Amino acid sequence: MPGRIFGIDLRRASPQPDQPLRNKNNSISSLIPDSRRSSMEHLKRPTLSLAKRLPSHDRKDRSLSKDKHAKDAPRSPLVPAPIKLNMLMESPPALFIDPPNQSTGALISGRLQVTCNLPEVTLTSIIMYLEATTTIKRPVHERCRECATTINDLYEWKFFSKPKHFTASEGMQELPFSHLIPGHLPSTTHGQLGTIEYSLHVRAMSSDGRETEFRRDLPIHRALRPGNDKNSVRIFPPTNLALHVTLPNIIHQIGEFPVQCRMTGIASKREDTQTRWRLRKLTWRIEESEEMISPACSKHANKVGGEGKGVKHESKREIGHDELKQGWKTDFDQGQVEGEFMASIDSSTNPQCSVEAQNGLKISHNIVLELVIAEEWAPNKKPHQATPTGAARVLRTQFNLNVAARSGMGIAWDDEQPPMYDDVPASPPHYQNNLTELADYSGEDLHADVEHLTLGDE
Ligand SMILES: [Zn+2]
Fold first, then answer.
1. Residue 420 domain boundaries
2. Cα 136 to ligand 1 centre (Å)
3. What contacts 352, CB < 8 A, 6 or more positions away?
4. Distance (Å, rounded) from C-alpha 187 to C-alpha 410?
5. At 330, which CATH number?
6. Quick check: 9 pLDDT over 80?
7. Ligand 1 center to residue 298 CA distance, Å?
8. If both were cysteines, with which of 222, 335, 417, 418 could 96 make a disulfide (CB 3.0 to 4.6 Å apart)?
9. How much distance in Å is there from the Cα of 27 to the middle of ligand 1?
10. Is the pLDDT at 448 greater than 50, yes or no?
11. Å from CA of 295 to ligand 1 middle
12. Where in the sequence does UniProt note compositional bias of the Basic and acidic residues kind (predicted)?
């Protein structure tokens, strides 16, 4: 089990500690229809600054609670815990709809179930915390729990204010709870450098000072609404080649997506002869890039030059690729080659959704295209009698991909809210030369293919 620390800088995992229900641009209240607002009033503002208000002895006590159970309070069958805790979730799996600056969050509700193991038990408190746990895979100090793990309380429920009496004869008692989890929070993420997880953590204290704990994971996913396809153009100076690519605006970890490509400017005609580029091979790969800032605990802050500082780590990996040698249509009269192929993420690589969290964890995705083109020459009178000139190039370019969960049957809790009209229509394609690359190509496969490349259309 991860360690835990308290009293650390909450801003790491709580972007707006004083306005936890606020999104970047919209206050949540303005997104809540009037009919809903009244029922929201009782939902206490999630106190992201909660840990700051906990008295230090309480914090210390909480940080030790797991060790206490592990070492000092063995769960011997001879000494049963005074109560048994369980939980029944009534809400569907937590799903944020829309990006962090627009999402209205996810409502959770359920019942905490308390059963007496003894004839009667007096509980002085039952407190439940909605916890966000950030785990660093490369902590500043190796094997330091405090460097590796940060737990932030996003909300807390105090189920009663005075000691409460429970008896076995009453049977299981149920304590209902609900909460609107603010939609700006990062979704549950298991990256290569860091993880973000949410859980409900219950601590019940009996009057004889014994504590019973219960924990339930609470995965939170984010789905984005499908929108218009994205059109992009890349040019490859000094050639006349321009690559037009159409991609879906959202892709998923599982399933194929279409990539439409059209390259223009492949033929140059002179009076009697023409030279042209023939597409020999197209390679695509999907890259997952990750960044994480490993913070240092107070004990190891000197390793990174002081409190509040950290070490940035980056990693990149391939999560899907393929190579195509055919499947496109070449039209030298029009001077273009076009085709569509299906690409997909290899779901066995444990791909993550794109995320950008205030604690420094950022995961983004790109599709990289490499096109190998070979030059050939032909007389205008006999355009089919082409001869390779021997020149070849590789065109390399990349496009951002937005990877998100499928919305499936998930419906935003406030789905009856009127639609927002701030979506900008698809803009005309823009040129991004800095993302393109033109290089000589001398792959062996090319020459093998070129041998057979004297005649015919594709
Ligand atoms: Zn440390």
1. 230-450
2. 11
3. 189, 190, 191, 253, 288, 290, 363, 403
4. 15
5. 2.60.40.640
6. no
7. 7
8. 222
9. 37
10. no
11. 9
12. 34-44, 55-74
Q: Closest Cα partner for 43 from 103, 102, 105?
A: 105
Domain count across the chain: 2
- Examine residue 136 and state whether it is found in any structural domain, yes or no: yes
Measured at the CA of 403, the angle between CA 402 and CA 408, to 5 degrees, comes to 120
Distance from the alpha carbon of residue 59 to the mean position of ligand 1, in angstroms: 18
Phi-psi region of 30 (alpha: psi -120 to 50; beta: other; left: phi over 0): alpha
In a domain, 456, yes or no: no
For the stretch 123-158, pLDDT in tens is: 999 999 999 999 999 999 999 999 999 999 999 999
Q: Of 204, 223, 242, at which residue does a domain stop?
A: 223
213 with 248, same domain: the answer is: no
How far apart CA 363 and CA 193 sit, in angstroms, is: 10
Q: Report how far ligand 1's centroid is from the alpha carbon of 69 (Å).
A: 23
CA of 149 to the centre of ligand 1 (A): 9
Task: Decide if pLDDT at 41 tops 50.
Answer: no
Under DSSP, is residue 210 helix (H, G, I), strand (E, B) or coil? coil
Residue 66 lies in a domain: yes
Q: Are residues 268 and 392 in the same domain?
A: yes
pLDDT at 38 over 70: no
Give 313 Cα–ligand 1 centroid separation in angstroms: 17
Is residue 2 assigned to a domain?
Answer: no
Q: Are 130 and 206 in contact (CB under 8 A)?
A: no
Between these two residues, 5 and 219, which has the higher pLDDT value? 219
Residues with CB under 5 A from ligand 1 (ion): 141, 144, 146-147, 297, 299-300
- The verdict on 216 and 327 lying in the same domain is no
Residue 428 pLDDT level (bands cut at 50, 70, 90): low
Domain boundary among 223, 244, 279: 223
